[in-house]
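As noted in the main text, all predictions were made from sequence alone. Below is one such record, for Phosphotransferase system, lactose/cellobiose-specific IIB subunit.
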Amino acid sequence: MLRRWFFNYNVNGQYEKTVRASKKLNEEDFEFVAIPVDLLEHEADNCDVVVVGPQIAHKLDYIKKIIDPKKFRTQS
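Prediction:
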């Protein structure tokens, strides 16, 4: 089960729509949370997935300092 996903934006609920439409995924296994990037340090321990949009690319160094020690896989 994925505990929580962090988003700095929510893409009009697209991730939630994908989970709901899936015949294999169970919506109760996901919690989607959109929070400001400045709160990521306090929320990262509660996340299994972090999705970062291009509009905050200027904060990428800040984000990597937080998520690298937590062993999140990163993809650019």
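Residues 8 and 19 are 19 Å apart (CA to CA). The helical segments are 14-21, 40-43, 60-67. These features were considered when defining construct boundaries for the mutagenesis experiments described in Section 2.9.
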